[in-house]
Known about the structure:
Number of strands: 6
Amino acid sequence: MKRLSVKKGETCMACLECVRACSMAFYKEFDPDKSCIQIIEKNGAAKPMTCVQCGKCATVCEHGAITQNAKGVYMINKKLCVGCGKCKDICPFHVLVKTDDSPVASKCIACGICVKACPMEVLEIIEK
Length: 128
């Protein structure tokens, strides 16, 4: 399974470069609400929240728009997505994006754009 992960023992400095890279890639603008990676505060430290490819989003999609590819990544078929937002509501990590100005949802596809953008090299793409 391919997924985005936070390297063990690494410290995020909350510079938001990963958030910027993701929202720019999907929506062509810097807007933290349009990023599939979020930085939260946990126990006084910044922590990147990423999609773990759990598949809960796929279980609620009544239109079959979310399917798992051969590498284990859940992908959204933009042609089948009706923009209902049920996938966003069920995401346990709050990293699935559905904004009012977009007709479809978006989620992490483990593309690595955020990994390349991180100056602290906190993120990585892993394959299990």
